[in-house]
Specification:
By secondary structure, chain A is an all-alpha fold. Chain A is about 75% helix and about 0% strand. Chain A has a single domain, classed as Orthogonal Bundle (MetI-like fold). Classes of the chains: A mainly alpha (about 575), B alpha+beta (about 350). At the A-B interface, helix 8 and helix 9 of A face strand 6 and helix 2 of B.
Chain lengths: ~575, ~350
């Protein structure tokens, strides 16, 4: 076998293995779901859809999903746009610290946010009781409502709108603003006639992304909607499946395809707008010099930090307070405070103890494997890009872009029966959750690696290639070391998302295979709010510590890889 | 009527001084080029005049209106200064006509008058039929013309040009240079033109201000800069002069003085009445040097290299007295000498760099 042939074989073998892996994690389950919905039992029929669509529950849930998604998107857009313009164009101080905190809600699992806010607004809220505004004992928490869900979705996803708009503002050459100022235009007019028109594509893309995220959100409607009987599509799918088990699979497949279609509409809009670079923006890469806010600076800063203390400090302080009182309802004092709840959930109670271990291992090993796959996959996508590879990229994106609940249903369909040939069943084990994490979070590890590759001069690899190094050797000696930092950032994102995740495991967990998310959920449903709060506080701490640790990596990361780094 | 007065302007960025006490007067209707290597502070100076940035010392006046000092700062939008950017900075979401009309619209002009003036401006730059196009559909030279039209439609008293030709290819540069010259002749506007290209500066400007590391080295006409550089930096930067130590044999009389350079006697030009001093420096250019005629005194040394330049050679000559110094002589074809040969070079001209004349 000649050396040239061996090197070629290496290259094709590696690519084929990566294609097979991505196909197995993404195309196979999503294809299986479509097949189930369109041809239940193997024969094409629209029976499933007939059944799903003739049920008024479906329409009510779809209506609810649209209501909360549109409402949440409007709120998130309003907050995100205002903050992005102030932070992106104004001369506010401590910008990095502010961005870090502002993006935090996005990094905290939705069910944790929901739990925290429930403690703020309920009849037993220490805060509202202190100022005499608490609802009467016995009345339902006002957040158990459509408005409550919209409020939390808006807060959770405002950073998404912020991040896309901020990235757009960064790319806006400062000369375009300066030319307008030189023409005599006031700042308000520059904003209206130059900045906002040019920011339309990223803004619409951010709005579409937010909408898709709202449609797929499970934690918030699960915690706030189920108690009040306000059921959206994801919670309907969850209720059907957990109530009826696999018997409901045909019906939930139909519902999943419906939820998927709504999301796909948003994704298509997002891609279209992001791809719409009709404005060839030229100029140097310096972003605009900040507008001087003058005497408005202090009020603006006060407003921004005031917003943060409202959406971060207040709910999470309440959460912490609840987690420190041994019996729910007892007011927190120096005397009543104890770490009993923490001891219970971390050590004494075997189920939550196991859940901690499971989540930790699942998140860590998913992160490790995703990085190992992303480094070569990113290489082919970023440097060897072709039309066919674009499809590969899209398939890696789909499981993350679609609602998590949809992906979970797809995996159940694939793994309900033992894997053929191997005769191995992973349904009802921790392994199906593992596969789910690999598929869904692959893109989180992949994106930073791809942007890492884009910032490296490809001639570095070509030089090694000219010296006769095969693709595997080049990977090991040239590419991996160069993208290592970006890959580490990707691994961290995967870990953060997987560690406190609920959407997938809510459908895929089984006894022995609990995760932190599912244990929190069941504590909350069974009245163990202080235990749920203790778990939530631990996940927040883990998230915070990991996010802060990335500040050490600092400047060595490609720009825009970690959302909380401005 | 717009004369610009820059009075001891300093701009400090944390611990880095980008401009150090720069003073400059630009007369009404003058075309002044600010020339310097990259990082010399010329763009900072432009941004201070435009009002994009604030001075940390000194003051900027336009006629008798104070634009900037440490206590007050007129915002860009109130300065009425026209700017042409290197990157053109055309708004990509507006048509050519809309780009040009923007300032008039801001000023509150009526539709009819606006259209009239936009048409006039486009006609002036030869783009009348392009009004409806988007900037992305234009070539680089056309975009720069639109940027110029957008600036001149406002009839500003002062126009700042920030390396406007740097993004254009060589052929376009010549025609755009012509365009700027016509524009200046027709309008009589005061223009400050930032560039790192001395050929461009010499071709266009009435006077050239040379900046280096935030310090104004010299302001003078192109020929004065070339013939009588005030500092070593100007001598080396403009026309690639070589600065060497010169021994002054006497004081300057009538603009020349007797001196010797690496042992070769020479009559060098200098400031009239300049006293003889130790440690003087001279600026020599290749036209000042020639292989010594038989019997003529010169500096002895070695010709290290001959590079063919088409019709003539560039000979690199290293004097024995200072082998690290490389003089360049232009030698017509056929070369009378070979690389590696010993030679004697006579100094037939040159300029004693005056001391302490930086301004």
């Amino acid at each position: 076998m000649s050396k040239a042939f061996r090197l070629k074989l290496q290259d094709w073998g590696l690519l084929a293995a990566l294609v097979a892996l991505v196909a197995a994690l993404s195309l196979l389950p999503l294809g299986r779901l479509l097949f189930e919905a369109l041809a239940p039992g193997g024969t094409p029929s629209i029976a499933t859809f007939e059944k799903v669509f003739s049920n008024p529950v479906t329409w009510r849930a779809t209506g609810h999903s649209l209501e909360i998604s549109i409402g949440g998107t409007i709120l998130a857009t309003a907050i995100g746009v205002v903050v992005a313009l102030l932070v992106g164009l104004g001369d506010i101080r401590c910008r990095n610290a502010f961005v870090f905190c502002f993006v935090l809600p996005l990094m905290i699992a939705p069910q944790v946010t929901a739990l925290a806010w429930l403690q703020v607004a309920g009849p037993s809220s220490p805060l509202l009781r202190a100022i005499g505004l608490a609802p009467a004992i016995g009345t339902p928490n006002p957040l158990y409502s459509r408005e409550g869900i919209i409020l939390l979705l808006g807060i959770e996803y405002a950073p998404l709108v912020f991040l896309t708009l901020r990235a757009g503002l960064r790319r806006l050459p400062r000369e375009l603003i300066e030319a307008a100022l030189a023409a005599g235009a006031r700042k308000g007019r520059v904003l209206r006639t130059v900045v906002l028109p040019l920011m339309t594509p990223p803004l619409v893309a951010g709005i579409a992304l937010t909408f898709v995220s709202c449609v797929g959100n499970f934690g918030i409607p699960a915690f706030l909607g189920i108690p009040g009987g306000y059921i959206a599509l994801p919670t309907l799918i969850y209720q059907r499946l957990s109530g009826l088990g696999p018997a409901a699979l045909a019906e939930v497949s139909g519902l999943s395809v419906l939820a998927g279609l709504i999301a796909v509409a948003g994704i298509l809009l997002q891609n279209y707008m992001l791809g719409r670079r009709d404005y060839r923006i030229t100029g140097n890469s310096l972003s605009a010099a900040p507008f001087e806010l003058g005497r408005w600076r202090l009020p603006v800063e006060a407003m921004l930090w005031g917003y943060l203390s409202l959406v971060l400090v207040v709910p999470f302080a309440s959460l912490l307070a609840i987690s420190l009182v041994p019996i729910f309802g007892v007011p927190l004092t120096w005397a009543s405070a104890s770490i009993e709840n923490y001891v219970y959930v971390l050590i004494d109670y075997p189920v939550s103890h196991r859940a901690f271990r499971n989540s930790l291992l699942l998140a860590a090993s998913a992160a490790a494997i995703i990085v190992a796959v992303s480094a070569p996959l990113g290489y082919y996508l970023a440097w060897r890009g072709s039309r066919a590879l674009k499809v590969l990229n899209l398939s890696a994106e789909m499981p993350y872009a679609l609602p998590g609940i949809v992906f979970a249903i797809a995996l159940i369909l694939v793994f309900l029966k033992p894997i053929p040939v191997l005769n191995l069943s992973i349904y009802n084990t921790v392994w199906i959750i593992f596969v789910a994490y690999l598929g869904r979070f692959l893109v989180l590890g992949l994106r930073p690696v791809i942007s890492g590759y884009h910032q490296i001069d490809r001639s570095l690899e070509e030089a090694a290639s000219a010296l006769g190094a095969g693709v595997l050797r080049r990977m090991r000696t040239i590419m991996f070391p160069l993208v290592a930092h970006a890959a580490a950032a990707g691994a961290l994102l995967v870990f953060l998302m997987a560690f406190s995740e609920l959407t997938l495991s809510a459908l895929l967990w089984s006894s022995g295979a609990e995760t932190l998310g599912t244990v929190m959920f069941s504590f909350q449903q069974s009245g163990g709010v202080n235990y749920a709060s203790a778990i939530a506080v631990v996940t927040i701490l883990v998230t915070l510590v990991l996010m802060l640790s990335t500040l050490l990596l600092g400047q060595r990361l490609p720009k825009g890889v970690l959302p909380w780094q401005d | 009527m717009a004369g610009l007065k820059i009075d001891r302007v300093t701009r400090q960025f944390s611990d880095f001084k980008a401009l150090k006490e720069v003073s400059l007067d630009v007369a009404d209707g003058e075309f002044l080029a600010v020339l310097g290597p990259s990082g010399c502070g010329k763009t900072t100076l432009l941004r201070l005049i435009a009002g994009f940035d604030k001075v940390t010392g000194g003051a900027i006046w336009l006629d008798d209106r104070l634009l900037s000092d440490t206590r007050s700062h007129v915002a860009t939008e109130d300065r009425g200064v026209g700017i042409v950017f290197q990157s053109y900075a055309l708004w990509p979401h507006m048509t050519v006509a809309e780009n040009v009309a923007y300032g008039l619209e801001v000023a509150g002009l009526g539709r009819a008058q606006r259209d009239k003036r936009v048409n006039e401006a486009l006609e002036l730059v030869g783009l009348t039929q392009y009004g409806g196009r988007m900037p992305a559909m234009l070539s680089g030279g056309q975009r720069q013309r639109v940027a110029l039209a957008r600036c001149l439609v406002m009839e500003p008293g002062l126009v700042l040009l920030d390396e406007p030709l740097a993004n254009l290819d060589v052929h376009l540069r010549a025609s755009m240079e012509e365009e700027f010259r016509r524009f200046h002749e027709r309008t009589g506007t005061t223009m400050v033109y930032i560039t790192h290209d001395q050929a461009e500066a010499m071709a266009l400007a009435d006077r050239i201000a040379v900046l280096d590391r935030g310090v104004l080295e010299q302001v003078a006409s192109a020929s004065t800069l070339y013939r009588e550089p005030a500092t070593e930096m100007v001598a080396g930067f403009v026309g690639q002069g070589i600065v060497v130590p010169a021994e002054m044999r006497g004081a300057g009389h009538g603009g020349t003085c007797a001196a010797s350079v690496f042992g070769a006697p020479a009559t060098l030009r200098c400031r009239p009445g300049m006293p003889a001093r130790a440690g003087a420096k001279a600026c020599l250019r290749s036209v000042d040097l020639a292989f010594a005629a038989p019997g003529e005194a010169g500096m002895s040394g070695t010709v290290r290299r001959l590079i063919y330049q088409g019709g003539f050679f560039r000979a690199e000559f290293h004097p024995d007295a200072s082998p690290g110094t490389a003089f360049v002589l232009e030698v017509p074809e056929p070369a009378p000498i070979e690389a590696g040969a010993r030679a004697s070079v006579a100094v037939r001209g040159g300029w004693i760099i005056p001391e302490g004349e930086r301004r």
